[in-house]
Amino acid sequence: MKKVDIILSNGTVVTMNEHLDVFPQGAVVIKDGQIVAVGPAADLGGEYEAEQTIDCAGQVIMPGLINAHTHVPMSLIRGLADDLRLDVWLYGYMLPVEREFMNEESCYYGTLLSCAEMIRSGVTCFADMYYFEDEVARAAQEAGMRAICAETVMKLPTPDATSYDESLEYCRRFIAGWKGHELIVPAVGPHSPYTCTPEILRETARLTQEHDVPLLIHIAETEGGVEGTRQLYGCAPAFCLDDFGVLDSKTLAIHGVHLTEEEMELMVQKGVGVAHCPTSNLKLASGVAPVTRMLDLGLNVGIGTDGPASNNNQDMFEEMRLAALLAKGITGDPKAVPSRIALTMATIGGARALHLDRITGSIEVGKQADLAVVDMDVLHVTPKFELSSDNIYSRLVYAAKSADVRHVLVNGRLLMRDRELLTVDVETITAEVQRIADRVNVFLMRREESLLDKLVAIGGLEWRETFEVQVKGSVEGEVAVKEGLAHPDISAVWRPSVRDQYDAYLLFADKGQGCIRHREDNVMREEGAVPESIRTLTLTEPGIEQEFDNSVLLSRSRFTSKADRTLRFYCEYFEPDSVKEVSKHRQRWHIRYKGVQFAVNFDRLTKPAYEGAFLEIKSRTWSKKDAEQKALLIGELLDVFNVDRGNLLKQDYVDF
Ligand SMILES: [Zn+2]
């Protein structure tokens, strides 16, 4: 009798090997973490003597599931902000919270929580992409799971690096620290083509090839991302990655929802793996990946849950069931992605996509013992048929649930026995995670109360306190203005400009909040020149007004930033009670009158449409005395420009 460590006996062994062998009364024999024999229990029983034999009667012994894409520490922010568009979700919530709260400690606890969740659903291996991957790797190792840990690199500052050079330096140290580990495979994760630069793509490709480690990258997740990639690089995502050598690494392409046929063909040639994340793609309304076509073309496709903030769980049973159903719904073909293929994708297909199929993904002699044992003697999987060889897959994919997973082993080590987690202290972890979540909660609740804090959260802010003396009046037409400008006491300071301004005011019922203006300013600095488009976002807090004879003194705080997102983004992010649009054609002069500078605007409103024109005269000020003097001069200017005192207006255009 040969001495071994563990025998799993009397279960239905679903091997997922090349021939899809199934042994109805089978056994799996494990020694030193490896599978040393698999076959009918009756044959193996007399050959091996194990320290521990686990009777698996009424159960299925199958390869552990492989979660081909996730961001494990994000379990910390599971359910924080849902039902939002990808950009609002990402730039409005995820990135600000990550900047504030993701550190070594939180990534460690977030990972442990995810590991506990995944082990309980039969997952033995996952591919992660996040920050502080050293901590992710440490936690995964403690939990005993197999993991590909990819440190994220992108052009934006991240929670663990102020620049991409720092991220690359982190990657080098990280790879050196973990290379050759029995469970952890260090990797590099350039986030996506459009959040990287050519240099980052080239450097990460070079780094992964130099150290022979995997490269993980999001690709063609949304239409917007593809468009962004085209604008940056002038070609479709897969071709641009190929240009920079990214496809020559052990590459995993994540999502691929909007890949073209040509891109998929290129990826087949290059041996690129794909992580299909159906729940996340549905939840963020990104679309449905052409999985049937990918499989037909011969791509290695695995299934991933994506991070717990966009799923919101890491249940691979749910995920493979959805992968099978969705493919049928979208193609109109019930034969698309049969249960056998769905289970393949969640096991050996995932291992191939991750370039790990030599060590895991199926029950074969010589592979590491990464296994899940699933109870089939449960109501919702009863009864059983043996009509076709596919019956067993259909029971596992369409009927079984993650809660039916009974034992889990990785590298021959039991991580869960009879549903009891053996490597993770659930009580401590859930308490730690809730402690961090409570802090996130307080932070966001405070932020939601203030427009300014929300504006700060999306970055790039400039603060300006302005004190202005100003007057506005309706005028007949341009002639009066031109005549006024010709006055001997008036001289031009800068060249005049012509602009079309499209403003959208985001208004709030609580006036104390102030209001936000999104402005698209199309400036024509010279006649016939192509207008330059400048988009800004301005938060104006309620001001203090003081009236003079001919004008008004305004003091208000204004916070401006470049508006680098769409108006739709800002509306969904700030959720105003109403939005009012104002557009106008503006001619602007900067003049000097009796030694004092004024700005003179001649405006025609186009929205709301308004007969006639308006003249605005304004000047910056810094003291009440100065304001009084300027108010006097403004009075004189009203005469110069021939404005009737009866036509003066106090409201802003938005209040018309
Ligand atoms: Zn992702």
Describe the protein in words.
The protein has 656 residues and is α/β, with parallel strands linked by helices. The strands form four sheets. Strands 1, 2, 3, 4, 5, 14, 15, 16 and 17 form a nine-stranded mixed beta sheet that branches. An eight-stranded antiparallel barrel has the order 18-23-21-20-19-24-25-26, surrounded by four helices. β1 (2-14) and β2 form a beta hairpin. α3 (104-120) crosses α15 (426-449), α12 crosses α13 and α13 packs across α14. The longest helix is centred in the C-terminal third of the chain and has 24 residues, at 426-449.
Layout of secondary structure:
Elements: E1 2-14, E2 22-31, E3 34-40, H1 41-45, E4 48-55, E5 59-63, E6 65-70, H2 86-101, H3 104-120, E7 123-130, H4 133-143, E8 146-153, H5 164-178, E9 184-190, H6 198-211, E10 214-219, H7 223-233, H8 237-243, E11 250-255, H9 261-270, E12 273-276, H10 278-283, H11 291-297, E13 300-303, H12 316-331, H13 339-353, E14 371-375, H14 391-399, E15 405-410, E16 413-417, E17 420-421, H15 426-449, H16 451-457, E18 461-475, H17 478-485, E19 490-507, E20 515-524, E21 532-540, E22 544-547, E23 552-562, H18 567-574, E24 578-593, E25 596-607, E26 613-620, H19 624-640, E27 648-649
Parallel strand pairs: 1-4, 1-5, 6-7, 7-8, 8-9, 10-11, 11-12, 12-13
Antiparallel strand pairs: 1-2, 2-3, 5-14, 14-15, 15-16, 16-17, 18-23, 18-26, 18-27, 19-20, 19-24, 20-21, 21-23, 22-23, 24-25, 25-26
Helix pairs in contact: 3-4, 3-15, 5-6, 12-13, 13-14, 15-16
Bound molecules: zinc ion.
